Predict the structure of DYN3 protein.
Amino acid sequence: LLLIFLTEYAEFLHCKGKKFTDFDEVRQEIEVETDRVTGMNKGISSVPINLRVYSPHVLSLTLIDLPGITKVPVGDQPPDIEQQIRDMIMQFISRENCLILAVTPANTDLANSDALKLAKEVDPQGLRTIGVITKLDLMDEGTDAREVLENKLLPLRRGYIGVVNRSQKDIDGKKDIKAALLAERKFFLSHPSYRHMADRMGTPYLQKVLNQQLTNHIRDTLPAFRSKLQSQLLSIEHEVEVYKNFRPEDPTRKTKALLQMVQQFSVDFEKRIEGSGDQVDTLELSGGAKINRIFHERFPFELVKMEFNEKELRREISYAIKNIHGIRQVFPCLFTPDMAFEAIVKKQIVKLKGPCLKSVDLVMQELINTVKKCTKKLATYPRLCEETERIVAGYIREREEKTKDQV
């Protein structure tokens, strides 16, 4: 067992049982698997390549290496490659139980760092973010990242750690990790701007910080995680008790299940109309909000569009009054005669019929759309979904006809 532990090797999840002792082969396998999953021309995939390294020189950490943001598509990459990569990154860093390593090159403006920007979106308080500054050895002569590493320029709660990785020339020249770590240590000890903080810089220190931070993070989140698991366990145990005496062919259970689904449909429909649903549509108005808009914005707009000729109306009023008096002399009076008033008002009210019927149609259509959205949860049972939609839509159309008759 001791010999096995002292031997460094790696295993891939997609190559079960095969141990890689040559880490050049590990690199080649990663490239081959990447091309197999994403294609040969710079494609991407959210499916991770799982690699486990066994070594006495590494810590027990799970690291997820995410791609950098691509601004311009290359090769066979789709036009929306930037959004695809962003969505994939957000899928991982949004998890509350992970730490975020926001890696930024030292020779770029920290204020334009995509890594820090994305980290701030999901971790605005900086509770899970650790800044990592790379390429310190490639900065222009006379410049340094001292203010950043001292956490003065753009402060992070967990601060920044500087590292110096192997260059592509070092990798091509087969420079091993031990030599790279010694060179990194020498760089920080000999650089006048970083000498005073050399003990808080470098890859070994980053490993130590990650291990400690992850331990602290696990300790902080464990109580809530344990409580959540206990709650889920109690729920599952309750569900098990319910199904202990379950008989699939029991008609009463089928009836109960049917009633529960119908009741849930009713609750979902009511919530969408009242605006208290569990899902909020951010793209367009729907449900009760749209119906409210029809009554308070669309209907008044249709009324304003109605043509109104004041001279014609005054002429009609004059004729109505005169016709009511017949051969009698018409004297100026303070109030319009009742019959004349009713005749004129009825004629004007008839003009409201068009906007009213149009509003009824719009409300009816939105109610039917809401029904269709609610029946999506019944999609597992196509017949029930179809019948529910047909019955409720039929009832809505029936109410529509009665409303139009009243109009």
Notes: The first strand starts at residue 9 and ends at 12.
